Amino acid sequence: MSIICNGYADTPHGQIHYRQLRRVDQPVLVLLHQTASSGQMFERLMMLLAEDFQTIAPDTPGFGNSFPPPEGFTIEFLSSALYTALKALDVHFCYVFGHHTGAAVAVQMAYTHPEFVQKVVLSGPPLLSEAQKDRLKASLKPIELAEDGTHLIADWHRIRQRDPSLPLEIVQREVLLTQIAHRAAQRAYQAVFEQPLGRQLSGLQQPVMIISGEYDTLRDSAEPACSLLKNGQICTIPDAGPYLCDQNAPEVAQILRTFLAETQD
Length: 265
Hints:
It is a single chain. The protein has a single domain, classed as Alpha/Beta hydrolase fold, catalytic domain (Rossmann fold, 3-Layer(aba) Sandwich), CATH 3.40.50.1820. Helices cover 42% and strands 19% of the residues. The chain is built from eleven helices and eight strands. Strands 1-2-4-3-5-6-7-8 form an eight-stranded mixed beta sheet, with helices on both faces.
């Protein structure tokens, strides 16, 4: 029976909470979540990959149950904290999968620690044009707590609009995680805007797979991101949206198995 265990890893800035499934003696696959979720979004995927990898899904600083990061944190800071936590867990090298903001962190980690990250899978890498950044910045509004709870309703409707087919249990999970991370979430988006993602993608030496749901909110970034890679592939999942790790977990699991099992020439 596969059991996902929870734990904490120490870093100089605080503790990183993580989920881990270690059923087989296979390579480590690290799963990095989107804003404003947590490693919880990968639980179904972890179960599907239980026979293929040791999986670790940390909560990024400021999200889930990990320590709150300092004001003005960067993607580099998030990557460094997670790298330190993984080293504390005795991970010497690994594969990394990141979704949306998690993809930005995955690129940073692979760029900064090429000897540590052997292969990379990016779901919806946020390679944004200046016009896209301006539109997103205009749409970001601080979460203000309301006496009547309307801030919860606003998040509920926002997440439902992103994917109307999303099961209510997942909508509730994401609403609650958004409330937990509301201060860090706003800064995380700004940190993504500031990251030199294009330059870092161009500098990656590792094999990289880019995947995207057909209806993902970051679908338009997939081909431009892939074009910058020295050793990149791309795969689109038909009919999938921005919550493909929940909604299309079997397809994502198979892509990961196939790509990560490929030998390098």
